[in-house]
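ENTRY TYPE: protein
CONTENTS: sequence, structure tokens:
***
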Amino acid sequence: MTEQQIQAKRIKQLEAEGYYVLKLIKTNRNGIPDLIAIKEGEVLFSEIKTPKGKLSEIQKYRMKELESYGFKTELYNGE
């Protein structure tokens, strides 16, 4: 599966769980995860990769930064 197909799969899953999902295309900060999912005050940032894909150092940093603000983050690879 391509990253785009994996992303479409994750969007459908999150929406089925009741989340409002946005794809982040361009942000003012490099390394921000691909998706933001919101449900009843809960915010989840989801970085999409293929099973062989790896996070860059800036992506790792941003995910830790977001977690320090109390947000949930995930690396989703379709598995």
User: Anything to note?
Assistant: The beta strands are 20-23, 35-39, 42-48, 72-76.
